[in-house]
Specification:
The complex is a heterodimer of chains A (322) and B (407).
Chain A lengths: L6 H22 L3 H20 L1 E5 L3 H5 L10 H4 L2 E5 L15 E4 L10 H4 L10 H28 L12 H4 L12 E4 L24 E5 L8 E3 L10 E4 L10 E2 L8 E2 L4 H16 L1 H6 L5 H22 L3
Chain B lengths: L2 H10 L29 H18 L5 E2 L15 E2 L6 H21 L8 H14 L6 H10 L26 E2 L7 E2 L5 E4 L20 E5 L3 E2 L13 H4 L11 E2 L5 E4 L13 E3 L23 H6 L26 H6 L3 E7 L7 E9 L1 E4 L4 E3 L10 E9 L10
Parallel strand pairs in B: 3-4
Antiparallel strand pairs in B: 1-2, 4-7, 5-6, 6-11, 8-13, 9-12, 10-11, 12-15, 13-14
Classes of the chains: A alpha/beta (322), B alpha+beta (407).
């Protein structure tokens, strides 16, 4: 204590010290509600890790809301409920999201990806969140792949498809060495709005499509659902799927209505993912035809697109989208 | 069909339109058929494919589908348009149909022929796959679905040498006199061949001139130079086309002559004798099933070429034939009715007696695609200026330097 200090000053300092202590205590105190919240969050994360789950929109926002007109510009995080999605095949939950068949990356400029650990058990928000797209793409792509695996397996078991006819499933189902190049691991780049300089649009370079050097993309209307030859962008011997984001103000991808369901649209749409994944299937099963017909043979192109449309109903019917 | 036309299709076929207008959808549960719902976009056109596959799911999961709900009678040979295949769960039905698709793709990769990369060819592959998956799939029922969707009967449609051209379809509907341009070529000169009953005639010769009083058969001078190859260039007999076992079909750009003789120095009407009409002879089929069908002009053919070939389907002279004016295809539900459908395309004339006289024939050409199996006409294209019907006059001038048959 400063013996020469005036009394009022000494008292003032004491008061300030007491006030500071009280303030500190008020900030650091563990109130019962906070404890519960943190405990719940921790429990959710643990449960998410145990069950390999987190929360995303189910199928699509427009499907969830039965509203075809909903746009991505709306507050979907508030409007659309999320549901628990159980993930499979993740190689390491603490590493960048990757499975035996899928590799995720944010973009061609950002080759990283979120870890499952960071979002395990959490409600993954959608708005401007590339992590959401990464998980969404991984989940529904895996769903499609697993479904196709089962169908191809049935055909092979029945002896209707020979092993060397379908490069797609060789290493997955039997682990056998195969001669034909395999489409896996499939690279999913979830933000195709970030293009290298000099590349304005993927769709400007349509035409001949190298079998294992092609890209599938999903984005806004008009140019959506096309594949293009973007060899400069594509990792060698890998399929790459692109799932676009906010390149378009109005994202209207509207298709795939089951007879008892409303049609819907949105870029964050499991049906769009499944549709594009079926193009990957086609690339694996009919590589020569797929490589030779785009833009040349309208009928064949329509067969590819129509079957990809139809495919969407399969995993939806068989496995659900939740 | 160019982009401009494509986006204006909304005004023409709003039900089939998919584009940027509100409320559009790519819906696998649709009733779109080819080629009525044709759009120059693989995604839009693909809806017909997905719709057909969904039909298969529908009928194999306990439901019944009337594949021609607006057709009466049902155009199939068994007069049964109600298709039902099984009663599986919808999920199982999806699995099955997707397996069928995958199997068909595997077959396609094994045999990527020019035919198999068409709707028709791939439909056949799917039917073969159906046979392989016969525990749930019935070929005859699936065939009806594919035919009703217009997928099975289209053969080489759009497989031509200039498919890279854009817009790709406008020129197919062109009428004109440009031999280079794709489309229906209508020169100003009338078509004709010498009339020589039994292979010879004292009333005609083989030179390239129309002589005074020469006996000639006159016909519209029409060439189909489009690359719309039609449903098949080698049709089988009509009897087979009534059954689901037929493998080849004929539906092509056809012409239909609506004839009117407008002027002639000799009065053409007096020469229009039923006995000497030259009829379209659609084709010669197997024994007992000949002379049936509907006139057509396949891609690459000209009436003149067919008329000069006595073995061709187009040339024939018949007596005592009951002739009706062209009927709607729907009424042609029997072989006998088909027999009546032959359309007169040419007339026997005695040429004018004076050199320099002109014969003028006015007629119209209707440009349609025709599916001979379903007996349905399709109007795919519209000429920008004229629609799908063109009226034209063609003229033939009598030569004034060569022989005369007037005496």
């Amino acid at each position: 204590m400063d013996r020469h200090a005036p009394f009022w000053l000494i008292c003032g300092k004491r008061l300030l010290a007491v006030s500071a202590v009280l303030s500190f205590l008020s900030f650091t105190s563990c109130r019962p509600s906070d404890i519960a919240s943190r405990f719940k969050s921790g429990a959710n994360k643990q449960e998410g890790l145990n069950s390999s789950s987190l929360f995303l929109f189910e199928r699509s926002p427009s499907a969830a809301l039965s509203n075809q007109k909903i746009l991505s510009t709306e507050n979907l995080d508030r409007l659309v409920p999320k549901s628990k999605h159980v993930f499979s095949g993740i190689l390491d939950s603490r590493s960048a999201l990757m499975g035996s068949k899928l590799i995720l990356q944010y973009s061609h400029f950002n080759l990283s990806a979120p870890t499952f650990y960071s979002w395990a058990g959490q409600d993954v928000y959608w708005k401007d969140n590339p992590d959401y797209r990464a998980f969404f793409a991984y989940y529904y792509s895996t769903k499609s792949i697993d479904y196709i695996d089962g169908l191809l397996g049935s055909l092979k078991t029945a002896g209707l498809i020979l092993s060397n006819q379908v490069a797609w499933g060789e290493n997955m189902m039997s682990g056998a060495t195969f001669v034909a190049p395999n489409v896996f691991p499939l690279l999913l780049s979830v933000d195709n709005s970030k293009l290298p300089s000099g590349v304005n649009s993927f769709v400007t370079d349509t035409g001949y499509c190298p079998i294992f050097n092609s890209n599938f993309r999903v984005d806004g209307e008009g140019s959506c659902l096309s594949w293009s030859n973007v060899s400069a962008l594509s990792p060698t011997d890998r399929e790459a799927a692109f799932f676009g984001d906010n390149a378009y103000l109005f994202k209207k991808i509207s298709f795939y209505r089951d007879s008892d369901r409303p049609s819907f649209n949105n870029v964050d749409d499991a049906d769009v993912v499944a549709h594009e994944m079926f193009h990957v299937v086609q690339d694996a099963i009919v590589p020569d035809v797929l490589a030779s017909t785009p833009g040349v043979n309208l009928q064949m192109d329509a067969l590819f697109e129509g079957t990809a449309d139809f495919f969407v109903g399969g995993p939806e019917q068989r496995h659900g989208y939740g | 069909m160019g982009r401009y036309h494509h986006f204006n299709l909304y005004g023409l076929i709003p039900d089939a339109f998919v584009g940027t207008l509100g409320g559009t959808t790519r819906d696998i549960d649709n009733t779109l058929t080819f080629p009525n719902a044709y759009l120059d976009s693989p995604h839009d056109l693909g809806r017909i494919v997905s719709g057909a596959l969904y039909d298969l799911v529908w009928v194999s999961s306990g439901n019944t589908l009337d594949v021609f709900p607006s057709e009466s009678p049902c155009p199939f040979a068994d007069l049964n348009c109600s298709v039902q295949m099984g009663s599986q769960t919808k999920a199982q039905a999806y699995d099955n149909v997707l397996e069928l698709v995958l199997l068909s793709f595997a077959k396609l990769e094994a045999t990527p022929s020019a035919e198999n990369v068409t709707f028709s060819g791939f439909s056949k592959l799917m039917l073969d796959s159906c046979d392989a998956l016969a525990t749930w799939c019935t070929r005859s029922s699936f065939t009806k679905i594919l035919e009703a969707r217009g997928l099975k009967t289209i053969h080489n449609w759009y497989i031509g040498t200039d498919t890279a051209a854009a817009p790709q379809n406008e020129h197919l509907a062109k009428f004109g006199d440009d031999p280079v341009a794709r489309g229906i070529i209508l020169p100003d000169t009338l078509g004709w061949i010498p009339f020589r009953p039994g292979g010879s005639s004292s009333f005609a010769n083989d030179d390239q001139y129309v002589d005074p009083c020469e006996a000639i058969i006159v016909f519209p001078n029409v060439t189909n130079s489009s690359n719309l190859l039609g449903f098949d260039s080698a049709p089988t007999n009509i009897a087979d086309s009534w059954s689901t076992t037929a493998e080849k079909f004929r539906g092509t750009p056809i012409y239909e002559i609506v004839y009117q003789i407008v002027s002639t120095p000799l009065g053409f009407s007096s020469f229009k004798h039923p006995t000497y009409q030259a009829y379209v002879e659609p084709w010669t089929g197997v024994a007992g099933a000949d002379v049936k069908g509907i006139p057509y002009l396949a891609a690459g053919e000209s009436i003149k070429e067919l008329a000069e070939d006595e073995e061709s389907r187009i040339f024939g002279i018949y007596n005592n034939i009951e002739f009706d004016s062209p009927q709607s295809s729907k009424s042609a539900n029997s072989a006998s009715n088909l027999y009546k459908l032959r359309t007169p395309i040419g007339w026997l004339f005695k040429a004018p007696s004076s050199g320099g006289d002109q014969m003028v024939l006015e007629f119209s050409v209707k440009y349609k695609s025709f599916d001979a199996h379903l007996l349905k006409e399709f109007s795919i294209f519209n000429d920008t200026d004229n629609g799908d019907i063109q009226t034209i006059s063609q003229t033939l001038e009598v030569d004034n330097t060569s022989n005369s048959f007037c005496n």
